Amino acid sequence: MEIKFEKATLNDLVAIKEIYDYYITETTATFHTHPVSFEELREIIPFHNKKYPSFIVKADGKTAGYCYLCQFKKRQAYDRTAEATVYLKPEYCGQGIGFQTVNFLEKEALKRDIKVLLGTITGTNENSIRLFAKCGFEKCAHFRQVGQKFNELLDVVIYEKILE
């Protein structure tokens, strides 16, 4: 399977929303509890940000998911740190695409002088935890019962990788 990454544009909003809505309504991977509007999605996904880009993940020419880097905190001293986010359509999970996507985001981060990547993951999301660990990230934080979705209290873990 050939995996490519294309810069995400506003024309990709419908595809991105379809993927994200699945994770909102069917999983605890995101703490959104109701589908977001296109306006809200434009605020979440950095479409026009050179430092924090977003990409469409293509598998054999078909949209398999999306990924992006986003600002960790809005203070200048954090400019060397970003969060890496990956969402794949369920049918593309477990095929090594997530691994390729995280590696791609690492390279994109280094091009932008980002030296630390974080993955913020729901504590029950074992697939994402395994993915980030396989990519060399280490658990650096664990927040207990900080969210509630589907009548379940949820932890959040943060995985970190120093890219230097």
Automatic annotation (TrEMBL):
Gene3D superfamilies (UniProt xref): 3.40.630.30
PROSITE patterns the UniProt entry points to: GNAT
Annotated InterPro entries: Acyl_CoA_acyltransferase (IPR016181), GNAT_dom (IPR000182)
Domain (N-acetyltransferase): residue spans on this chain: 3-164
GO molecular function terms attached to this record: acyltransferase activity, transferring groups other than amino-acyl groups
Domain of life: Bacteria
Key words of the record: Acyltransferase, Transferase
Classification via CDD domains: NAT_SF
Residues in the signal sequence: none
Short name of one Pfam family: Acetyltransf_4
Designated name of the protein: Phosphinothricin acetyltransferase
Organism of derivation: Marinilabilia salmonicolor
